[in-house]
């Protein structure tokens, strides 16, 4: 179809619809913001308490009238994508002011809140052991609800229209096959909550103080990576590292799978192609990291294997916890980590990256291309993953995302190079930000030029909403043009 014909079929997003859904989201954020406010009040951090309370009240006052604008029974794809892109931007922006009460500049506070809500884990804060408890909790708490996804939480709690809720969930990569959108979202929410409670109990049982264990658990299940210590996991006992890594791995498995496993048995999880791929790539990454440490750094085999396993889980789940200084690793190990961060975890999980399903699709496409070289010209091959046919729209969507993701990484990396930053560390930080991984070789910090902080912040948002949603927000025809009538 020619461009003019395509434009004739396009409808601009209805601002009233977008505002109505954002109003519901603001109400959820108001409730979520009250939790760190309570912690700040209980720990005597009155400046942060007052700001968090003011933000929650403002969100409630803004969200109440907007939510009454009414949501139509169905919403357009560009409206759903715009809501998703704006949701994460809004959720980060509203927490900048409270975080500046801890002495951070507005730009650094913005970087921190974006890193939190996108579950990335890159940080501008140092001397974490001396930071107020309320600051540490706010970071971990934002990662926790950012990990589940604000859209999913809004659907689970207050969305009513089935078709609209379904489309909103689909922008986050969710696949709804067996239940309605609200039932699906509530199941995922309950799984997430139970995983979180189990993580808190397990990490506390390893000997950490309850508050410290809670901070690690919230970040682990969300695959976020914010730690209450500057050395991340390095000062923790081995049992604590193991428990935290376990829940990072559990968070990187598709959350709806747990619900299906309850109904059909645990075999559902083990038969899932993405789960099997996750286990295989974690084992492969562990082996490569251990081999690198032994051959290139002279590390003892058992130590190399243990450190490699923790790092492999952290990178593959895009969590960002680390038991060592990554700048001390060999270039080979850093490249292995970058590949692992890029691939990420399972669709429908809290992990970042491109998601393993896209790797499986790419490998299957290569296999089909090889088959075709030896087949008759008219032969037709289906692309199948786990016995199920992959629709052409999914194939094209995966290839588009791969292309957009590559462009974002290359453009951001070039900006770092033009700013005079070292090539390898710059690429590592850009990949980590775009994959929402949070592992760092030390380049990210308060000394980083403001423009590069802004670029990494944008990369984190691009990675969390998988590029397209944020591009839709920035695309003028999304907002300018003829609109459909709003039906209820």
Please explain how this structure is put together:
- InterPro entries: Cat_transpt.
- Keywords: Cell membrane, Ion transport, Membrane, Transmembrane, Transmembrane helix, Transport.
- The chain crosses the membrane at residues 51-69, 81-100, 141-159, 189-209, 240-258, 278-296, 332-354, 394-419, 454-475.
- GO terms for molecular function: monoatomic cation transmembrane transporter activity.
- With 488 residues, the protein is mostly helical.
- It has helices spanning 3-9, 15-42, 46-67, 77-93, 96-100, 106-117, 133-148, 150-157, 162-170, 181-205, 210-221, 238-251, 255-264, 267-270, 273-297, 301-316, 331-343, 356-373, 392-418, 423-434, 450-464, 468-474, and strands at residues 384-385, 388-389.
- The relative contact order is 0.11.
Give descriptors for this structure.
488 residues; mainly alpha; 22 helices; 2 strands; transmembrane helix
């Amino acid at each position: 179809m020619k461009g003019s014909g395509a434009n004739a079929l396009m409808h601009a997003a209805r601002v009233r619809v977008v505002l109505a859904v954002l109003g519901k989201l603001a109400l959820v954020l108001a409730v979520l913001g009250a939790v760190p406010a309570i912690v700040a009040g209980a720990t005597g951090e009155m400046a942060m308490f007052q700001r968090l309370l003011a933000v929650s009240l403002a969100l409630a006052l803004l969200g109440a009238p907007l939510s009454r604008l009414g949501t139509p029974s169905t919403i357009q794809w560009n409206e759903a994508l715009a809501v998703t892109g704006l949701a994460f931007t809004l959720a980060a922006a509203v927490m900048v002011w409270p975080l500046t009460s801890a002495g951070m500049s507005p730009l650094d506070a913005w970087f921190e809140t974006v890193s939190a809500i996108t579950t990335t884990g890159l940080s501008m804060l140092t001397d974490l052991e001396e930071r107020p408890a309320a600051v540490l909790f706010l970071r971990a708490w934002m990662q926790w609800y950012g990990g589940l996804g604000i859209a999913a939480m809004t659907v689970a709690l207050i969305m009513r229209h089935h078709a609209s809720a379904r489309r909103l969930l689909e922008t986050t990569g969710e696949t709804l096959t067996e239940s309605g959108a609200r039932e699906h979202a509530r199941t995922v929410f309950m799984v997430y909550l139970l995983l979180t409670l189990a993580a808190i109990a397990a990490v506390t049982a390893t000997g950490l103080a309850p508050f410290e264990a809670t901070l690690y658990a919230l970040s682990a299940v969300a695959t976020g990576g914010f730690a209450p210590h500057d050395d991340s996991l390095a000062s923790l006992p081995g049992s604590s590292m193991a428990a935290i890594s376990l829940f990072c791995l559990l968070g990187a498995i598709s959350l709806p799978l747990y619900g299906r496993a309850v109904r059909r048995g645990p075999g559902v999880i083990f038969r899932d192609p993405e789960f099997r791929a996750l286990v295989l790539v974690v084992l492969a990454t562990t082996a490569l990291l251990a081999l690198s440490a032994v051959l290139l750094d002279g590390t003892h085999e058992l130590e190399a294997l243990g450190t490699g396993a923790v790092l492999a889980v952290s990178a593959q789940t895009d969590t960002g916890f680390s038991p060592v200084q990554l700048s001390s690793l060999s270039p080979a190990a850093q490249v292995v980590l970058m590949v692992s961060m890029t691939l990420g975890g399972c669709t429908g999980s809290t992990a970042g990256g491109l998601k393993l399903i896209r790797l499986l699709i790419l490998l299957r496409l290569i296999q089909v291309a090889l088959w075709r070289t030896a087949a008759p010209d008219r032969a037709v091959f289906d692309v199948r993953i786990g016995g199920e046919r992959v629709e052409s729209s999914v194939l094209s969507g995966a290839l588009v995302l791969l292309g957009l993701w590559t462009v974002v990484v290359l453009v951001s990396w070039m900006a770092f190079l033009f700013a005079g930053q070292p090539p390898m560390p710059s690429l590592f930080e850009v990949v980590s930000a775009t994959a929402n991984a949070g592992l760092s070789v030390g380049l990210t910090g308060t000394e980083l030029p403001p423009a590069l902080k802004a670029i990494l912040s944008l990369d984190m948002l691009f990675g969390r909403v998988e590029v397209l949603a944020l591009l839709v927000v920035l695309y003028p025809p999304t907002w300018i043009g003829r609109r459909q009538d709003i039906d209820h």
